């Protein structure tokens, strides 16, 4: 096949993945994408989802000859492509310099190359190129709104069909993106990094999102969720709570980031801590109360103040240590914007995988480990292993009286049962807090809803004590 540079010019879109551009070039030439890809020598296979099907966020890295070929196919100079495509000059060990000039390519996952990968706006693409084809691009979470068309563009790494959510009736989400631009400038002036401040604020708000299913006074998020779901999320609430989360909570994420940057709010944290006379942070602290008011939720303060172990309390602790000069060498313990791994928000793709597995085998017990602390998993495993050893003894290899072996076996099984019951309770709590309807959890564990509610309430009271 002979290629004529510039025959059909296909300009790159800012932030686009190379894989997306290749797909658009193929469409422009009226070819199958697979046929056009055969122009390169591929060093590995295209990544796909666990259930089959190609990943939309799959990215392509090219060697020098491969980049020259792509520039010729789209009729655009290489320096223009380098400015538009974030992955243009990324190297890959699978692509050694080809002495014979063979165009080579390697597949990668986009998120591991140049940051979060999302779908682009087809309407904007059609306006610019004349064709409403799919575009995949790199974009941080705070720039997912297409202001012109009122759409929130979704992550491209998840195995689900939607490219965007309709924000037609949610102007506050669009406004939050405009507001973030000002917050980001304040972050830079404060000597911090916008990515880290945003990530911390998002961790704080998504933790509330996980807890909010039981908040009767929370009315804003349910309204938004139904809107992005097309009017009613009730038919598939679990999935919509995952797919719609980032769009629904975006205004609050920006508001929390703005609050955490406010020196006046930082001063309230210092005051709540007792300032020069250290004390435990109170449940009725002024900082959390004021934060709730800034979010339009005056009732949120006490809930946020008593969420021990969460990212907000961790941030407050860092602020206090810095103010007291009690921090050690530079590190996570005196860095307010340090986000612990356990506080990072779960991705949409990860949550959908868990949901899919649980729907295939509800109540199978395969998902409880993700909700049980590591140390408790070790205790359960150890106890069960011990019980299995005693069972072997009871079957005829025991060295003592059978009755004594039986008693030890029962004690071991009883201890194991207690640990597993505790793990089961934690799994149920995690499921409810994660947005699974109480009725659904009750069905999984084969208990009446009222019985399960009482058990969860008792478990929370025990945790409080």
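^ structure tokens above, recovered residues below v
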């Amino acid at each position: 096949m002979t290629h004529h540079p510039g025959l059909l010019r296909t300009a790159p879109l800012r932030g686009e993945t190379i894989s997306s551009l290749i797909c658009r070039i193929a469409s422009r030439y009226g070819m199958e994408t697979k046929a056009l890809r055969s122009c390169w020598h591929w060093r590995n296979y295209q990544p796909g989802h666990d259930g089959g099907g190609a990943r939309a966020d799959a990215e392509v890295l090219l060697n020098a000859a491969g980049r020259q070929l792509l520039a010729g196919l789209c009729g655009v100079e290489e320096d223009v492509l380098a400015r538009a495509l974030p992955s243009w000059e990324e190297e890959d060990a699978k692509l050694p310099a080809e002495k014979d000039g063979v165009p080579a390519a390697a597949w990668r996952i986009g998120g591991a190359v140049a940051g979060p990968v999302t779908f682009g706006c087809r309407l904007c693409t059609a306006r610019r190129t004349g064709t409403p084809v799919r575009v995949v691009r790199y974009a941080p979470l705070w720039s997912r709104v297409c202001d012109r068309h009122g759409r929130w563009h979704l992550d491209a790494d998840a195995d689900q069909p939607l490219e965007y959510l309709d924000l037609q009736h949610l102007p506050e989400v669009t406004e939050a993106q405009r507001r973030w631009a000002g917050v980001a400038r304040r972050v830079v002036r404060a000597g911090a990094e916008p990515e880290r401040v945003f990530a911390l604020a998002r961790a704080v708000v998504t933790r509330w999102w996980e807890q909010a299913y039981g908040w009767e006074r929370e009315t804003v998020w349910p309204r938004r969720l139904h809107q992005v779901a097309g009017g009613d999320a009730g038919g598939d609430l679990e999935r919509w709570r995952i797919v719609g989360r980032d769009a629904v909570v975006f205004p609050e994420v920006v508001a929390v980031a703005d609050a955490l940057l406010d020196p006046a709010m930082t001063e309230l944290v210092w005051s709540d801590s007792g300032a020069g006379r250290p004390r435990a942070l109170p449940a009725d602290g002024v900082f959390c109360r004021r934060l709730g008011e800034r979010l339009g939720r005056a009732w949120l303060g006490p809930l946020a103040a008593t969420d021990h172990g969460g990212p907000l309390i961790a941030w407050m602790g860092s602020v206090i240590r810095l103010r007291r000069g009690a921090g050690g060498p530079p590190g996570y313990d005196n860095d307010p914007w340090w986000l612990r791994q356990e506080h990072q928000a779960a991705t949409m793709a990860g949550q959908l995988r868990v949901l899919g597995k649980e729907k295939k085998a509800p109540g199978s017990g395969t998902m409880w480990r993700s909700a049980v602390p590591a140390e408790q998993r070790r205790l359960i495993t150890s106890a069960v292993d011990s019980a299995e050893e005693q069972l072997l003894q009871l079957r005829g290899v025991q060295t003592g009286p059978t009755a004594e072996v039986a008693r030890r076996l029962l004690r071991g099984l009883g201890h194991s049962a207690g640990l597993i019951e505790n793990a089961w309770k934690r799994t149920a709590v995690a499921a409810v807090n994660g947005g699974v309807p109480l009725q659904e959890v009750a069905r999984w564990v084969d208990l009446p809803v009222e019985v399960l509610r009482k058990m969860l309430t008792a478990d929370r009271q025990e945790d409080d004590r």
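The beta strands are 41-42, 58-62, 104-109, 117-119, 136-138, 145-146, 151-153, 164-166.
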